[in-house]
Write a structure and sequence with these properties.
Blueprint (H helix, E strand, L loop, with lengths): L6 H18 L6 H7 L6 H5 L3 H25 L7 H17 L2 H14 L3 H24 L6 H19 L11 H15 L2
Helix pairs in contact: 1-2, 1-4, 1-6, 4-7, 5-8, 5-9, 6-7, 7-8, 8-9
């Protein structure tokens, strides 16, 4: 049965699911926990998502939606073509924002990513999300006047993911804090890795 068409409520549920995953991991993940986190009546999540797998997949799709919104907003802050230094600046800004403002979201992403290695249906969702993220990023690079190849975009996404994991889990720097200098150094290394 198709989920009810209330998009705002679906987003509230998947945002609640992200909070549950970030705070309790998969051990505490249930329809009831998501209802509570979304401040919605008991049974709402089950009404929208008939299985745990469906709820996990919808939550993963919400992550892509939020990521694309963030990228589009960052793109809107930039005028004119961007050179190599501009790309480094954009990546650094994105790393810092993701690690500081969206830490909860990415903790949830890591939970979902690990779970996708054990759930083929979720893996298919993640594969589709990765493909969409690559296409979206390629479009953003072209719009910024960058000539980054698709292969280099894929490499950047992988490097970015590793750098963000390091920042989110507090492994960067002596005090584990995410600052502009650390993010810029990581971004510079990422861009150097795809440039000759």
């Amino acid at each position: 049965m198709a989920p009810p068409p209330n998009l705002a409520r679906r987003r509230a549920l998947t945002d609640g699911a992200l909070r549950v995953l970030a705070t309790t991991g998969l051990h505490g993940f249930s329809h009831r926990a998501v209802d509570t986190a979304a401040d919605l009546p008991a049974g709402t999540a089950a009404n929208y998502f008939g299985s745990r797998d469906a709820l996990l997949a919808a939550t993963a799709e919400r992550v892509l939606e939020l990521h694309e919104q963030d990228m589009a907003a960052a793109h809107g802050l930039v005028s004119g073509p961007v050179d190599r230094e501009g790309l480094i600046g954009l990546l650094a800004m994105s790393l810092e924002m993701s690690a500081n403002l969206h830490r909860e979201r990415y903790l949830a992403v890591y939970e979902l990513t690990l779970e996708s290695t054990r759930r083929p249906a979720l893996r298919k969702t993640f594969d589709a999300i990765r493909h969409a993220a690559i296409e979206f990023t390629c479009e953003q690079h072209r719009a910024l006047g960058l000539t980054t190849s698709r292969q280099d975009v894929e490499t950047l996404i992988s490097l970015y993911g590793g750098a963000l994991f390091t920042l989110i889990t507090g492994q960067a720097g002596d005090d584990g804090k995410t600052d502009t200098a650390t993010c810029t150094a990581l971004a510079r290394t990422m861009v150097a890795g795809i440039s000759s």
